[in-house]
Amino acid sequence: LTVSARDGGGLPSATNAAVTVNILQTASAPAIFERSRYTFSVPENAPEDSLIGTIKAREPPNSLQVVSYRISSGDPHGIFSIDPQFGIIRTKKQLDHETQSVVVLTVQSQLGNSSVYSSTQVNISVIDVNDNPPVFLTKSDKVTISHTQPPGTAVYIAHAEDKDSGLNGAIKYSIASKQSSAFSIDPSLGVVNLSRTMFADKQQEYTLHIEAEDCGSPPLTSLLMLDSLTVKIVILDTNDNSPSFTSSPLSYVMEDVEVGFLVHRIIAKDPDEGRNGQVTYHILSGNENKAFVLDKITGLLTTTQLLDREIQERYSLTVMALDDGSPALSATQVLTILVLDVNDEIPVFLKQLYKTAVHENRDPGEFVVKVEAVDRDAGLNSLLRYEILPGTGYEKFRMNSDSGEVVTTASLDRETQDIFSIKGSPSRSSTAQLYLTVLDENDHNPLFAKTQYQISVREDLEEGSAILDLFASDEDDGLNGEVTYSLIDDTFGAFAIDSVTGSIVTTKALDRETKSQYTFRAVASDSSTHLPRSTTVMTVLIQDVNDNVPKFEQSYYKVSVWEGQSPKRDIIQVLATDLDSGLNGETEYSILSGNEKATFLIDSARGILATTTVLDHEDTSSYREVAPSHCLVLLASDRGTPSLNSTATVLITVLDVDDNPPVFSSPEYHIHVKESIPVGSHITEVSATDCDAGTNAEITYAIISGNDRGHFRLDGKTGSVDLMKTLDYEDTMKFSLIIQAT
Q1: Which helix (H) or strand (E) covers residue 723, if one does?
Q2: Taking the model in full, what pTM does it have?
Q3: Which option is the CATH number for 244-340: 3.40.718.10, 3.30.750.80, 2.60.40.60, 3.40.50.300?
Q4: One Pfam match, by short name (predicted)?
């Protein structure tokens, strides 16, 4: 059999069902169900093993066999079970109405082991429980609307879905955050409508949080700010305003103006925003001879050719102001331009150039100058009106059109602009030049480029040398901007500053050994008595120059040493000091002269003078005071470049030890005298020398033999021999005297 299904609307199912009936040849009768269809219902939240219902099949009369039941189809997932003996249907798993709301089971009954069975249909309705909240398909959205939309306009449709059915799936919408009274929502349809017009609203953006709630019991809702729908509504400007002219529809121009002269500025305002409010300007008609050109952006109307009042004295230009909206809106204005006549006698300024000055920082309204022109015409042609022609800085001045007096309209700042060149015109016929100088006020103090300077200079810098040129800037002009420099700390007479140039120079010779560093402050001042002065700290470091020679403590040393002492004995230590620093102040010692035999040596670092051999007084007369030219000359040198040095003389006296006997000048003296020489006569004189010195060299003479009878007398000091008795040749022809020198 082919079975088709149709609903109440007459629509058939997508496919038909094929039913095959097998006819069995048997004499057995089956157990017949009491009903051909059973209908039960169960809530979807029923727990497992919940009772659904009971079915019953009756066995044939006089049958002793037992009836059994089984589910033959309709439960592929095994959600239900049936008691095979009693026909009780129960749940085996959790039900879900949203997955399957109706279950159709086919249950068979069998009598014993017979192959014959009967069937019945069991319809189970899964009753919906409100277990699903409404869910928005999107969490946020954005719409734009025009601010001209009328109340009641639908601006957005919110849509949420609820898997439940019936009232449990019926959704109500509401606006959770009531930020504005401008919007309302249809609770059933979710349509957001305008509640009022948006013209007067300054707010251009609204954020709505829309909540969805079902009609179940209890109702479930989308959670605010988590599952709710956030809708951002942007109010767009609509090009609903046409440009409106604010400039005058009448303008005047002299017939003798130059080409390119500014005749008029056309101004139109459009209150719309963005491109809807951007206005451009166009000449529609009246400019057939192209006498004028209109800048479409600025609205400035200028001449393109010379005008002639006698040919045309009036121009009527139809001007359009057009915004950039879509569609664009426009407005028109008829601009009348009157070309004014130039008289035969033009007005003439008494001076073609006015020069004046005004102080800066004065309040607006400060009188500048009064200009004056005369016109030899009479009547209206001689009545003059003054005005300032457009130019650089002209907006800072105002001219009395009747009197020609010029006053300021703003406070002037000389440091911003110090010269103004202004053109004035009476009746737009004659012009004069006003040359205005803004007089400076002392409103700026001098400023040094740095707050401190550190420089190094050599100590041998010549007096009057410049070491640094300080500069302080002052934005004022003239005397107010003239900076004078001075020093306010003690420089110990070493430095001075040029009050005009700021150049710091030395005023005396520098000496690092006296002072190695100077710290002082320099001041920059102008003529102000109330503005603060600018100061900077100067640190001058004096670099050492090798300008000091090593200086011995004494220029002349005298020292004595005994002869015969062992070599390498220290004799004397000399010291030379050098006031310089570093290598320039390190001293080295050496023997410059007097040491030809290398008898002495000196420690180059410590200045200790010592012997190199045993000294012999008798062999070293060159060291005696009687021979000063043979003294030692010591040299002390520093290690600077170039090296400086000094000398000192050391006189070394070798003290005598009595180690030498007297020696006669001759071992024998032969004297011949007459026997008749008188007593007291000088016979001869002996002489001996002793290499020793001092008392060791003092000699005493004595006759030790040969003068037994006392004929002779010997002077012990001088060695002089005199006759003491009369000689007698016949008695004694020869005397042999032995004389001793000690």
Answers
A1: strand 720-723
A2: 0.34
A3: 2.60.40.60
A4: Cadherin
